[in-house]
Design brief:
about 170 residues, mainly alpha
Length: about 170
């Protein structure tokens, strides 16, 4: 997905790969990491102190929406993005897709959709079942949400690294 940039050290992807591949947990790592990511996202929803530098704007937006509506289950029972959180895509030319801010915005919007769906399903199922069953039944949604969350982080790190390169030749190519 990154073309040749994915193989350059200046892209930041190589550094991420070198740093995190050796620290894999081998005991059900996929499910453990997915569940930890989902727990982090859910805890972040209740946290009022969101970092202004965080690339995860979807968590802050949804958290503020829920606080404004007093976490009312009736107001947040829809699986659709509320009207006030919807974004308008301002792409007119094909070159507009190369705007890094637009890409982060689109990835955040995808994660917001998945977060709303997950939270809605979680609230719906948790009223009838115990927490263990709910958690297991929502594994497919957890996988999608944690992947979307991870993709935002990778895109953010990639952009931060590429656009802060001190090499004139690389800078000219970008």
């Amino acid at each position: 997905a990154c073309g040749g940039m994915g193989y350059l050290k200046s892209s930041g992807i190589v550094t991420l790969y070198q740093r995190y591949i050796p620290s894999v947990t081998f005991e059900g790592d996929n499910y453990v990491l997915i569940q930890q990511t989902i727990r982090y996202i859910l805890k972040s929803l209740s946290n009022e102190n969101h970092s202004p530098d965080s690339p995860f704007t979807y968590i802050k937006q949804y958290s503020q929406y829920l606080q404004k509506n007093n976490n009312n289950k009736e107001n947040s029972s829809s699986i659709y993005v509320p009207q006030e959180l919807q974004i308008k895509c301002n792409v007119n030319e094909i070159e507009d897709w190369s705007d890094p801010k637009l890409l982060i915005k689109i990835f955040n919007y995808r994660a917001l959709n998945l977060l709303i769906k997950f939270r809605t399903e979680y609230l719906h199922h948790s009223s009838n079942n115990d927490d263990f069953d709910v958690w297991n039944n929502l594994q497919p949604l957890m996988i999608n949400l944690s992947k979307a969350h991870g993709m935002i982080y990778i895109l953010h790190c990639f952009q931060a690294r590429v656009y802060n390169v001190d090499n004139q030749y690389v800078d000219n190519a970008i």
